[in-house]
């Protein structure tokens, strides 16, 4: 599988997990199995990708435009996500979930980057993007914890 195809599948998985599989099924009208095929890296599913209408529906509910950003990056572009997007929840629990997801994305980027033993400039930029996203989640989490500590 070509490297950028793996990258798109990884971000499709992040998008589905960001929204939640049950919610993703309802929003897209697709089954769990079908959604799973969209991000599976098994050879039998290598030619299956999430349709754009499903991406639009899911990214409207997601905390981050995972697939749209990945598409931009694959083509050498960057995307500035709207910083004022409303999150699905303003709780520490939601922050913990987001933190775990962002960290998993960073580790996935790192793993893909070191497969050939060399981290290219493009790979470093993608890891930097994931690091910045992780940092944003940590800042939000810090603010929520400070808010709870003052109550």
Describe the overall structure.
The model has no long low-confidence stretch (mean pLDDT 85). The chain is globular and about 55 Å long. The chain has helices at 3-19, 21-28, 32-39, 52-61, 66-74, 92-114, 121-149. Helices cover 69% and strands 0% of the residues. The longest helix has 29 residues, at 121-149. It folds into two domains: 1-83, no CATH class; 87-151. The chain has 151 residues and is mostly helical.
Describe the secondary structure blueprint for this structure.
Elements: H1 3-19, H2 21-28, H3 32-39, H4 52-61, H5 66-74, H6 92-114, H7 121-149
Helix pairs in contact: 1-2, 1-3, 1-4, 1-5, 1-6, 6-7
Taking all Cα atoms into account, the compactness measure Rg is: 16 Å
Distance between the termini: 52 Å
Beta-strand residue fraction: under 5%
What low-confidence regions span 5 or more consecutive residues with pLDDT below 50?
none
Helix content: 55-70%
Tell me, what's the shape? globular
**Biggest sheet, open or closed, and with what strands and sense?**
none
Pattern of helices and strands: HHHHHHH
Q: Give average pLDDT, whole number.
A: 85
Number of strands: 0
Class computed from helices, strands and strand pairing: mainly alpha
Total number of helices: 7
Number of domains: 2
């Amino acid at each position: 599988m070509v490297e950028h195809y793996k990258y798109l599948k990884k971000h499709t998985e992040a998008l589905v997990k960001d929204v939640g599989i049950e919610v993703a099924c309802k929003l897209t009208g697709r089954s769990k199995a079908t959604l799973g095929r969209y991000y599976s890296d098994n050879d039998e599913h290598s030619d299956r990708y999430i349709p754009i209408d499903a991406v639009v529906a899911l990214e409207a509910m997601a905390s981050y435009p995972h697939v749209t950003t990945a598409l931009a990056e694959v083509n050498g572009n960057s995307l500035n996500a709207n910083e004022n997007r409303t999150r699905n929840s303003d709780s520490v629990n939601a922050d913990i979930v987001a933190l775990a997801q962002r960290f998993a994305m960073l580790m996935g980027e790192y793993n893909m980057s070191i497969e050939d033993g060399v981290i290219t400039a493009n790979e470093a930029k993608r890891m930097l993007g994931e690091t910045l996203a992780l940092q944003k989640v940590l800042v939000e989490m810090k603010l929520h914890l400070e808010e709870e500590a003052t109550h």
